Amino acid sequence: MSEKKFREPNITINRVYTRTGDSGETALVGGQRISKDNVRIEAYGDVDELNATIGGCMEAIKPFHDSHPKLVKINSILHRIQHELFNTGTILATMPEDVTENLPCITDNDVKVLEEEIDRFNNDLPTLNSFVLPGGSKANIWFHMARNICRRAERRSISLAKECDLDPLIIKYLNRLSDALFVYSRWVNFIIGCKETTWNPNFNK
Question: Which has the higher per-residue pLDDT, 160 or 97?
Fold first, then answer.
């Protein structure tokens, strides 16, 4: 049985500015215009920011590809996640009544794959006995920034879900993705040999 295919993009971008947003409103996928500070816009704006930060994660580990080939596999995972985040943003930018069967979206399998990857990467890591402080490498910091933005996108989506019907897979996916980004942050440091620092509430006391 072939996997369900989403609708292909049907857009042409040949002009960057349109002036239609100068009044503080923007258009949704269905054509409705709403304020740019609407919680729906905030939600998919956070997802867009997360996508850009994932790109930063990919670039941060590129210099280590030759010396640590294992990092190449996480790069392909991040590339897939970028596409999944665009699918997430599509649903967030669409009113519930305009969501169609073949509109790009998050699926149960997307969540399942993330969970499998979390378990696989986490199996390589030492057990934690405290919280981890971001640092050790620039790559690690990029992943922690992505994790924090992902949590913000999750919170915004929860706020949106209180106002209207929202596919619960959106919140579930973002919740799982933030966990994945935490594991990836540790795994990257582990692979390149950077020691991680755990939280000590009595540091320097």
Answer: 160
CA angle 109, 147, 122 (to 5 degrees): 65
Q: pLDDT tens across 171-198, in order?
A: 999 999 999 999 999 999 999 999 888 9
CA distance 94 to 117: 29
**CA end-to-end span of the chain, whole Å?**
62
Q: What is the mean pLDDT of the chain?
A: 89
* Cα distances (Å, whole numbers) of residue 104 to 4, 117, 136: 10, 22, 37
CA distance 150 to 183: 14
d(CA 173, CA 111) in angstroms, rounded, equals 6
The position carrying tokens 């399998």 is: 109
By the 8 A CB rule, do 84 and 147 touch? no
